[in-house]
Amino acid sequence: MPKKEEINIMEKLVSLAKRRGFIFPSSEIYGGLASSYDYGPLGIELKNNVKKIWWRDMVQQRKDVFGLDAAILMHPKTWEASGHLKSFSDPLVDCRKCKKRFRADHILHVQGIKPDLGTMHEKPEALKVCPECGGELTKIRDFNLMFKTFLGPVEDSASIAYLRPETAQGIFVNYKNVKDSMRAKLPFGIAQIGKSFRNEITPGNFIFRTREFEQMELEYFVNPKEANKQYKYWLEQRFNWYIESLGIEKSNLRLRPHEKDELAHYATACSDIEYKFPFTDWDELEGISNRQDYDLKQHSTVSGEELNYRDEDGKVFIPYVIEPSAGVDRTVLTILVDAYSEISGGRTETTKSTKDLEVVMKFHKDVAPIKIAILPLVKKEKLQKVAAELHQSLKQNWTTMYDETASVGRRYRRQDEIGTPYCVTIDFETIEKDNSVTVRDRDTMMQERVKIEELVEYFGEKL
Ligand code: GAP
Predict the structure, then answer these.
(1) Same-domain pairing of 328 and 456
(2) Which of 30, 197, 380, 384 has a Cα-to-Cα distance from 246 of 20 to 30 A?
């Protein structure tokens, strides 16, 4: 069970996210929509940085991975072939008294009972009573998580379509297109970032589980003989990515191999990269699976299209697939939780007492939504003019913020709260004496004077 102060940190984080423009409740003026969120001006910078870094490391810096952006709406046969129509469901129970709805496996999990599909349907003692009001629970029903819609004006069975529940299937149906157009040789991967939709029964914990979310998925096609080796390779790559590219603290991450009875129907092996979230302790951040040839085989059977591969020796086979599948929003949440730190006061003039706490978001520089803040010491035209020119010049290379309201101490504190690595202060010495500015480092709080004409080079090295 998470500790009380850890839950408290989530409350503080959700409040900071709204107050400082990271994440807002969706349609708030209408009272909000449960578990739907909007990314504000800083949130979208942070989220875009996550996607950019993933794309850089998974596509642009590799020779063997190709990018893709497939449509969200796909032919309904896709979901028949992938198995989603039949088995993409969660076991659901309702309370007859309070009318609340629960996932049966979650109820068992909280009681320390390992959820098992067979025993769940026999309705063991643990699934008789509502965990909230003690009322009687209904029998388990399987609830399909796909959002259904209709294409065109007629709402009949012939026009049913689904919002994709994973980006992966857009990749599998394009396997042949990418292989042929890129003349790709095994092993090679296809990567995609995009929205997915699941009608989750119990969304929650801020942006951890929502009904609309974004995924970053790679399907890496390999010779079946190489599958185990490639699976291990990707486990290591992906685990290190969070530490090296996003700056996540290693001790808050772990790799958890799935037990046999946890594996999805298509997988022979799967491991989750888990993060120590404040609300659940360890939980999934990304899954890495060996999906074998399940998907290509299924799509080949249902579509009638050959989805195989001919190697140099003329041997024809269906490749196996190793799939690292990550959530964008869950990664953003991980970054926010990991970066959140409270430091006893005295860092800025706004908290002279060490009893006061100052919040610093210690984002990795590549992830930070704003890289440099430009702060004229006071609102005087001469200082504002230089500051505005400097802002214009630094903006060409980095995301910047101009702030001239309130005392400089208060402004430093505001920038710490949004995790800006550097603040540049323009003071009277800048214009009267040395044409230099003060650069303040968020983490060390060290300040140094740097000549204006050297700033671009200075930040080029730092950022
Ligand atoms: N193609 C495999 C696949 O979709 P998954 O474990 O269902 O596997 C992969 O999803 C990742 O997508 C998860 O590790 C998580 O980061 C993210 N994800 C899944 N469902 C989500 C939801 N409802 N809200 C936010 N992120 C979600």
Answers:
(1) no
(2) 197
- In the structure, which protein residues have their CB atom closer than 6 angstroms to any atom of ligand 1? 166, 168, 198, 200, 209-210, 213, 215, 217, 284-287, 323, 325-327, 329-330
Instruction: Read off φ and ψ for residue 120, nearest 5 degrees.
Output: -60, -40
pTM of the complete model: 0.93
Give the three-class secondary structure for 443.
coil
Which residue's alpha carbon is nearest to atom 22 within ligand 1? 209
CATH code, domain with 440: 3.40.50.800
**Residues 331 and 407 occupy one common structural domain:** no
- Same structural domain, 304 and 370: no
| Total of domains in the chain | 2
Say if residues 230 and 334 touch (Cβ distance below 8 Å).
Answer: no
Task: Give the domain extent around 435.
Answer: 363-462
- CA of residue 119 to ligand 1 center, whole Å: 25
* 351 pLDDT above the threshold of 80: no
CA-nearest residue for atom 21, ligand 1, is 209
Q: Are 371 and 398 in contact (CB under 8 A)?
A: yes
- What would the mean pLDDT of 395-417 be, rounded to a whole number? 95
